[in-house]
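call fold(seq) -> C-alpha cells
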Amino acid sequence: MSKNIVLKKGLDLPVTGEAELRLSKSASPDIVAIEPACFKGFTPRLLVKEGDRVLCGSPVMADKKNPDILFASPASGTVKEISRGEKRKLLAVLIQADEKQECLDFGAKDPSGLDAARIKAALLESGLWPFIIQRPYGILADPASTPKAIFVSAFSTAPLAASPEFTLGDRMADLQKGVDALAKLTPGGVHISLNAKNCATTPFAGLKNATFHVFEGKHPAGNVGVQISHISPIVKGDTVWTVSMEGLAAIGHLFAKGNYCVRRKVAVTGPAAIEPNYMEVLPGTPMRVFASHFGGDSEGVRIISGDILTGRTVGEKGYLGFFDNQVTILREGTEKELLGWINPLRFNLFSNDRSYFSWLLPKKKYDMDTNLHGGPRAFVMGDSYYGKVLPMDIYPLYLIKACLAGDIDKMEKFGIYEVLPEDLAICEFTDPSKNNIQDIVAKGIDLMLKEMA
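ret:
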C-alpha cells in the first residue's frame, strides 16, 4: 500500500439528511428507463422498437460511431415507449418490466484464463462496456485503445454520499472478479483509492491484483479525477480509464455468474427527505418509486439523481441515472430574507468564507435548500479563491475563462485534460459570482472533442 496522500485543500458541506445505514425495501419498478444523456460522447442507434420483447442484458441501443458498444436493458419486459424530444432526439427507451425477471446467459468465465481481447469481447457483448469511462473528456472508453492504467475510487466525499461499505461490502467476490478482469486490459494495472479514515477496516483493502492509494482530506478527495492528478497526472496524449465501484461489481458478476446485473443499493438523502435510508433498485428506476421519501407530493421540493453538487434535477417524473447510487431531496429556496446579505447574524446559513457568524458553530449541520443567495455576475476574485477548495495542480479560474473564450491553447495550458465538470463542482458552490462553472467546463470539453478528438 502506498504512502498516504494528504490533501490540504477542499471543503466538506455540513448538510443534514444523511441516509441511515438501513435498507428500507427492495423495489422492482414497473417501468425502467435507458437514457442516452447519461453517456457523454455517445450517439445512439436504436436496436429495438415499441412492442419488442427484451431480456435483462438484451441490447437496446448501440453507439453509431462504435457499433460494438452496446447498451443493455436492465430488466426483462416489453419496450413500452421510445421517448423523443426536439428534432426527434432520443430521450429514453422505456421498458415495461416483467413481474418475473429473465436474464440472458452470457456464460460464466474465469478472467484469469482470458486474454484482453476476450475480456473486451465479453464486456461489449453483455452491454457492460459503458461502465468504463475514458479520460480526458469523460467519454465512453474506446475498446480499440489501451489505457496507461485503470482507476477506481473506493470512497466518496460528496455531500451525503452513499457508504460503499454498506452498499457493496457483501459483494467482495464480484469486486475481486472485476479487478482481475480489468487488470488484463492495461499494462499499468488497476489502482484503487481508499479513504484514510477507514483504510484499516474497509473490506476493499483485501482486494488482490490491485495497487492501493490512501487519500486523506476533504471533498473532492473522493473524486477519481482528483486522485489521478496525484497518482499519475494526465498530460496530452495520455489515456486512462475509470470505473465506479458499482460498475466494478457488475463486471465481476458477469464473469462469476454469466448475466447482466446492475441492481444496486441507493442512498435516499437530503434535508427534505423523510426518513433518509437506502433502497435497492435498478438504474433507470422512476423517481415516483421514492415517493415515500418526499411525501408523495413533489411541489416545493427538488428531486436530484445524484448528489447536491453534481447531480441532475430530474423531478418526480424523472429516472435514476445509470451511474448514480444516490437520490437527494432538497427544498426549493423561494423565501425572501429580511435584510439579505447585509445581515451577518445568519446562524442557519453556511458560509465558507465567514460572511456570517455561523462559523462560530463549526460542528453544526445545515438544512440547505436551492437558494443561490444572489445572482450571476462577473468574475471578480483572484485564482486563489478557487484554489482554497480545489486540491489539484491547475489554475481553475484561468481554465474556466479559457473555456468561456473557447481558447483551446489556453485550455490545454491550464489543465483541461485533467478535469471533468464534477471536479470543479466545489468551486461552483463557493463561487460568489454565482457562475455555472460545471456547465462552462462541460462546454469547453465539448469544444475539445469537436476540434481535437
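The longest helix spans residues 437-451.
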